[in-house]
Amino acid sequence: MSATTFAAESALRITNVGQEVEIENTSGGQDIGESVYFGTSVGLAYKDWTFGVIGAKRWSVDTDDVDSITGRVVLDAWKNYDNYKLGFRFRSEKDYDRYYARGAWNHGMFWGSADIWYEAKTGKDIYKNDKNDTWRGEIFPIGVQYNGIKLGWFVDAEIVNGSVADGYREQNFEHQLRFYAPLYKGEKLTVQTEIRHTLTVDDKYNNEKKAKNDATRFEDFGRTRIYLKNNYQVNESLNVYLNYGYEFKDMEQVNSGKSYDSDNYYGVCTFGWNYKF
C-alpha cells in the first residue's frame, strides 16, 4: 500500500451529501402538509467507522399559513464489522432528546436490526403523556431475503417511565410484517415497493375507561401502508428519488372498544437527492 493510499484511508473523509423533503398529510388536515420536513445530510467515514450528520426543520403548511413545528439535529456513528455493525445516534428536537443504541446484522438469507432509544421529554408527546420519558424500540428480530426480495418481522415498542395519569397510555407493542421487492430495473431507473402490515397491537392504558374519545388504537390486522419508491441514477455519483406511501387503517376507541370509523387517508411523499464522493 502506497503512502498516499494509506493516508487517504486513514483520514476522515466525506462520503456523501444529500437533501430531502418529506410531506405527510391526513385528509381533513392542512391543505399542503401537516408535517413538511426539509433536511440536509452529510456522511463521513474513518477507517471502519461511518458517521452521519443531519440538520432539519419541520413545518405545518396550509395554503394561507405556515407554522414552525420543530428543528432537528441528528448525529450518527457506526462501527462496521464483517457481518454486522453497531452504532449510536443522538437526535434532538424541541420537545425531546433521544439517545439510541443501534445494531444490524446480515448473514446469508437472514438479517435483522434494532434501534433502541431513551427519549427524554421536554414537552408533551402526541399521546399527551405529559413530559414522561419513554423507552422506545424499532426492532427487526429476524428477516429473510432472496434475490432482492426481503421479508421481515418488525416490532414497534414503547414503555413510558414513571406514573401516568388516568386515561393515558403506559406501553405499546405493535407487530408488523414488512415486505420489500423490486418492481422494475432499467439502465438508470429502479422502482421498488415496500408493504407494512400490522399483525397485532398490544397496549396498556392506566384506566383506559377514562381515555378520551379521540384516543384510538389500530385493530389487529387493521393497518396496511404501501410505498412506491423510485430512484433515478443521474450518473455514477448523483441519484435523485421520489417515494410515495399510502395507508389504509381500521381503528377502535380505547375507552369503548368500538370501531372508530374514519375516511381520512394518510399519505406521505418523499423526494430528494444524494451525491456520493
The strand order across the widest sheet is: 1-2-3-4-5-6-7-8-9-10-11-12-13-15
Instruction: Determine the structural class based on helices, strands and strand pairing.
Output: mainly beta
The major β-sheet equals: 14 strands, antiparallel, barrel
What integer is the average pLDDT?
91
Order of helices and strands: HEEEEEEEEEEEEEEE
- Enumerate how many helices there are, as a single number: 1
Rg, nearest Å:
21 Å
**Helical percent range?**
under 10%
- What's the count of strands? 15
Tell the overall outline: globular
Beta percentage is: over 45%
* N-to-C CA distance: 21 Å
Show unreliable segments: none
Describe the fold and architecture:
This protein is an all-beta fold. 3% of the residues lie in helices and 71% in strands. It has 1 helix and 15 strands. The chain has one helix at residues 3-10; strands spanning 13-26, 33-46, 49-62, 65-80, 84-92, 96-107, 110-121, 134-146, 149-160, 169-185, 189-205, 216-233, 238-253, 259-260, 266-276. It has a 14-stranded antiparallel β-barrel with strand order 1-2-3-4-5-6-7-8-9-10-11-12-13-15. It is globular, with a radius of gyration of 21 Å. The model has no long low-confidence stretch (mean pLDDT 91).
State the gist of this model.
With 277 residues, the chain is an all-beta fold.
Write the layout of secondary structure elements.
Layout: H1 3-10, E1 13-26, E2 33-46, E3 49-62, E4 65-80, E5 84-92, E6 96-107, E7 110-121, E8 134-146, E9 149-160, E10 169-185, E11 189-205, E12 216-233, E13 238-253, E14 259-260, E15 266-276
Antiparallel strand pairs: 1-2, 1-15, 2-3, 3-4, 4-5, 5-6, 6-7, 7-8, 8-9, 9-10, 10-11, 11-12, 12-13, 13-14, 13-15
